[in-house]
Specification:
Elements lengths: L1 H12 L2 H23 L1 H10 L8 H21 L3 H24 L22 H19 L7 H11 L2
Length: 166
Amino acid sequence: MNSMMNMFKGMVYGNGVTAFFRIALGLLFVVSGAEKMLDPAAFGKTVGMYGLLPGELVPLAALTIPPVEILSGGLLAAGYRIRPAALIVSAMLAVFMAAVAYNYARGLRFDCGCLGLARLGFDEQIGPAVMARDLFLLAVSTMLYRAKKHTASIESFAERVRLHNL
């Protein structure tokens, strides 16, 4: 029980667990964004299926979301500007979860267009499994946002250099 409490305290401060989650979440968003950029027309069709944006804005969203995913994911993976990147990831996940829940409640079922995992044989149909996965990812991004320090990151390296040069 005591070791479990120490692990959670370490996650609040930032430890190897937070570093693992930060790098994994960052790479997940980089790959997801790159997957969407490979076929922007298909991603645009998926965005349109959600029925949340006027038709004129669907292409703009389809062209804007992937680079934002790649940039925020890359920043997380590298450990640079972690808090802003985690905030952007959290916002994207919250909006996406709301869109999935809305369409699931309407009785619609289609590939969510999330991570490109359908090409690897994973089920990405909108529904409880996708919402649960994204809720977990939202919890991870929130943990990363709240962590005080981040090991194995550009930010921690820069802090060590700054302290060494004092």
